[in-house]
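Justification of computing resources. Each target in the renewal requires a structure prediction run like the one illustrated here; the chain below, 314 residues long, is used simply to show the kind of job we budget for.
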Amino acid sequence: MSTSQPSSSSKKQTLFITSLVILWYSSNIGVLLLNKFLLSNYGFRFPIFLTMCHMAACALLSYMSIVFLKVVPLQHVKSRSQFLKIATLSIVFCGSVVGGNISLRYLPVSFNQAVGATTPFFTALFAYLMTLKREAWLTYAALVPVVTGVIIASGGEPGFHWFGFIMCISATAARAFKSVLQGILLSSEGEKLNSMNLLLYMSPIAVLALLPTAIVMEPNVLEETLSLGRQHKLMWLLLFVNSTLAYSANLSNFLVTKHTSALTLQVLGNAKGAVAVVISILIFRNPVTFTGIAGYTMTVLGVVAYGEAKRRFR
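Resulting structure tokens:
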């Protein structure tokens, strides 16, 4: 009797974690593919407005999840200084998401993911420049194939576009910069926020920053969105699902991080990128070359080696 209960509990835990991983994968890959579909295939040419929709959904759903559903305890902003730090992080976060969405207008999802895999390189670079934090030489050596792989993949990418590539690299660098900046700005125990509370406070600030930006840089957005909505009845449903998935990706990432080990998260994260690449190629039928696949594979292997080196030399 006593052995069957732990076994049953273990099975429930395994099933729960498996469900979380499936939700994490489907949310991340779903929002990525829907972004590409809307921005590149559907005629919706407004990446800033799309990002604002994502942030609005994150603000509303974060509030509901934390205040009403009690997914995590509500953490309060305790000072003006802490608020300004969160606002700074929010602006950097906006830049990374907008840059990534703009790049999807010009680049295939597969190449977008290959460039995005270089995040560890930029994280290590910013960590050194901003905090003078040094890693073991083997950790830095592992970053060589990460960068080399993207260079090779760029040369072998039939759909390569310089502006899209610059936006994608900028978004990747901004994402890494945000993670290092977050570690610096919210380092004191009194100011630390978990990722769900941070999203709760960053999202409304992001909406306020993106609204005037969208009005200035995408002046016809409301008119054209309403026109697309009249032409395509599924337009509003796609925007709603896309924005909800953006929040679901953040929530599931938080829950997977909470319920698995750092190593498991790293392995799952690397696999997620590869799954996204395969699914995007099957859906969008973008041409791929052996050189491009080889470059992406090298980058992923470099990321795996980097994670292993960091774990060993921590």
